[in-house]
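Following up on my earlier thread - several people asked me to post the actual chain instead of describing it. Fair enough. Here it is, all 393 residues.
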Amino acid sequence: MEIIKKQVIIIGGGAAGLVAAIFCAKNGADTIILEKNNRIGKKILVTGNGRCNLSNINLNINKYNKSEEAGKIFNQFSVEDTLNFFKSIGLMTYADSEGRIYPSTDYANSVLDVLRIKCENLNVKVVCNYEVKNIIKIEKFIITGTGDDFIADSVIVTTGGGVFEPIKKLGHSIVKCVPSLTGFKTEKEKIAGLSGIKINAKVSLNIGNKIYTENGEVIFKDEGISGIVILNMSAHLARQKTDKAILYLDLLPEFTEQSLLEYLINRKENCAYFTIEQFFTGMLHKNIARNILKSIKEFDFSKKCSTLTDTELEQIVRALKNFELKITGFYDNAQVTSGGVNLSEVINLQSKLIKGLYFAGEVLDIDGQCGGYNLQWAWSSGAVAGKSTINNN
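Reply from S.P.:
Thanks for posting it. Predicted structure:
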């Protein structure tokens, strides 16, 4: 008796698409990846600053915008499953002190290479420079685009962030897509002269009546601020589908306002020979100190710090503990997109509208914070979708 293989088309050759292809092919399906770029896995190469932070041993589903839905997929393909999978295809990994998992080589190329070689080993066909224009479901799926047409029993869409028009044509609704895990553009006057300066701060993001707080390194840039803590804050803001918010930086989080005031009063006495310009020497970057002072009043920086009044010291404390920056926009180099295919129209990654149509990765309305969370979602959802195309159809 002739065994007829199932045919699976995977649209998108990124992290989720490559893992989905491997699981489809391992289970006996004829598998084809359609990739619009000139090569597969381009985005993998830039993750983790080129090192590929591929997961986190301390995975916390509350780091995702839709924790319950993400948790259901992680129950089927966990971090441990992911590490065993990568080990089985030749990748050695390690975890840093924060639980972030990297390839032992510290090169993202290694992650892409083992995925690509495994696809080749399983005879997964890859068609690059192919942009899908339409997906039609009659008895089977017909995919048309910038090349030959393809026919498949199942389709897995892993196109990443942004609106994928063929999905809308099939009747799926899309939650508004906005940049996430990116830096903030802010009012420029308060950050003038601070570009390149790094500081550990307590960051509070005020969105309407909601306040999110996290400690971490802040990096000042020409037009705004960045750093992992800021990227995580951008995820909160993206999920609110707005860029209207205010940041407050506590530049000396180790102090309370009262203890800082007492410290500055003693500092004024002990370092009475300092000018006002020198008052923060050895304590805070001079450019940050200058901007803080300028936000209060036009001080005569040549005067001795002993001339600072108690009222002025109180104002300085408030400014240091609540350095306010109005957000004016996002930087363009977002790591992920918040939004995507509406989860109410999907069950266990399969479309409720069209049997045999699956989604994985960033194309869905699930996104996580920094630290390997988004790649873990890609690996897990790709694996579950890949296995489901065989088991469910």
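The first strand starts at residue 7 and ends at 11. That should answer part of your original question.
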